[in-house]
What we know:
alpha/beta; Rossmann fold; 7-stranded mixed sheet; about 45% helix; globular
Amino acid sequence: MPAADIAYARTGSGQPLVLVHGITESRHTWDPLVPALAERFDVVAVDLRGHGESAKVPPFDVGTLAEDLAELTAALGLERPHLIGHSLGGVVVTAMAAAVEPADVINVDQPLELHGFHDGLAPAAPIIRGTPEEFDGFIGNLLTTLQGPLPAAEQARLRALGRPDQEVVNGIWQLVIDGPVAELDAFADAMLAGVSVPYLSLHGMDPGPEYVEWLTARCPTATVEVWPDHSHYPHLADPERFLARVVEFTR
């Protein structure tokens, strides 16, 4: 898909920094953080294919989403950008890393040991692929659970921004739901093999005691950091702390 079909907003000056949102969301998820980031960076907040104002053109798999963003960064002339992705965006920026030669990568609350995600989603496949009402109910419940202790105003803002699209979500989740697990593991291994720059895996929901060893075995440049009880949105639960961590990590 042409880079012109990918919507984005650009503001600030300095080293380039690309922000990638989570599934069903848009670049506006990052709005509370962009003004402060723009004081230090040339910030490009992107709408993934099928999200926000970007074109809805299949396919929607992670590899295609990453290719879209790699083409956009090239079209914009962004050299060695800092990449920050939340949730689905964390997978996308990891997949991008081999293509765009970033300065570094920050993955916000997206474990890459995907067979655990498969175990959670596969039993719900009939609902996720069911009627629009079934799909909407599943996604609504899931997103509410992930918001955890976020302030009520921030939860309301995220709900207002969300645009769950059944075709898009199923396209993104197809590999995760259908597997097989060996293919998921191979996909994660191949992604991480392409990462040779500093990589911060920042979690508000603890991915478990074995995750550090799993990730660093595949990506020796990775650091895993857990902010307990910060929900799936640690960057929005404690924006000042997140902004300070970004500045520290990207120096």
